[in-house]
Please model this.
Amino acid sequence: MVGRTRLDAPHLLADAHTTSGLARRLGVSNATASAHAAALRGAGLITTTRAGRSVPHQRTGPGDLLVRRPV
Model:
């Protein structure tokens, strides 16, 4: 994981957020938020589910450990 935005995303995802909601909270485009979500999902730090047209993302157990770890 590299970059401030990608590091901030797991902190926001204690509660589920859609891609557009995550983009707004991070101050990035939907495409950028989607790319960050894909990288975090690939690392096992978040899960993504589809609920109709909505695609919420939420932190996993390993993601919880990441945000609790002192930097």
Remarks:
- The chain has a mean pLDDT of 90.
- The first strand starts at residue 17 and ends at 18.
- Strands lie at 17-18, 46-48, 56-59.
- The CA atoms of residues 7 and 71 lie 11 Å apart.
